[in-house]
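Example with several molecule types.
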Amino acid sequence: MTMTGNQFDALLRAAGDELDARSAAHVAVERAAEDASRRHIAGFATVGLVAAGIAALVVVANVRDGNDPPAISPADTSAPASTELDPATFAGVQVCADALAEYSVPEQIGEFPLPDPATAEIRLLDIPGQPTRVRVLMVGNGAIYTCAVERGIDADDRIVSDSLSLAPTDEPSDVEECAAEPLCVETRMLELQQLAADWPEQAAILADGVVTEQEHAVANQRFVACLVEAGIDAEVMGRGDVITDGPAEEDRTAVIGCGVAHLDLVDQLFRLHDAQRRLADG
Amino acid sequence: MLFEEFVRTTGERVRRALVAYFGVEIGTEAAAEAMRVAWERWPDVSSMDNPGGFLFRVGQSHARPNVRWARHRTTFPSTSAATTQPDHAELIDLFAALAQLRPIQRAALVLVRCHGHTYGEAATVLGINESAVTNHVHRGTRRLREILEVTP
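Resulting structure tokens for the full complex:
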């Protein structure tokens, strides 16, 4: 089954209506059963069938209605790289003690160390078969984080969506998700092979690391802080604060974990990725 | 706030969260149990900072013994086949895809994307922070889009 984004959204809303209807029908059945039991009426099966009929009468929204979103084309990687963003500076990022103090991000949570913005190294990688996505790897202080940056561009090269998904690379739920997604597993394996080759000590630590949701949130904060210190124009709005319900084109903000960064961050990451690739190609 | 109003607002979110978490039958009954507790302890519940979060936990406690026997089975959207087959193939596929998500991820996604609640409302009733809800919704949506082959 293939569907468009609008159809998917409509289907989700229809699912909400359907769940409400089924729940209401179940309440009706239970009440009817109680009544039947009290009155010793041997008609429960009929009541159940009536309730089932009520549920079946629920009108499901026509998900085929609505406008189809514009087709997505790969990002334009021929755009000139920004002159103000030098990939070489990523290996030597500057510490901003004020920023770290402001957010009170600890150096270490439990057994899981966090990257230090003073020494963190950021690397941008291609994701095989996904030209509109960039994998951001950050390593430092014995820890590695990964971030997928995804860009949706329509036929007129307009940005229609941007999203970032942050996660420590050893989060159990990520592993669980990847296990169910062959493409993601392939990407993950390539990524882990890259990690093991480049940072063997850190990769060994990751094998033992487990983080809770609370730790994950704080870790995300540190990730954003590291991006800021790396010179990327990411604006951290505050721990646990989410100021928008989702990426909004109007104010060009994107939700990233517990922090919020301007979508300019995505622009910069894609430009840097392109510049980095040009350097690698000589 | 009057109890009736509480049931219509917070109670509805609790019910929807429990239905998404445990499935229609167990979730609905767990929500009814939670509302019974709310009625019996209304003076205490009404003065809580997060009564919805408390009642979601009450519902979970009530529901878990019912699903323990089926720990490794899918109970979402329903434990019974009698009233669970909508006449809509895409909806059946969506429910099957939702069943593959972790319960907390499914609950966050259903509250926000299916019922239109805000991230803050979902976080409050589920007793987790907004950033966690954001992550659950984002990853859950991504997973559903891949399973259902939704074009970007």
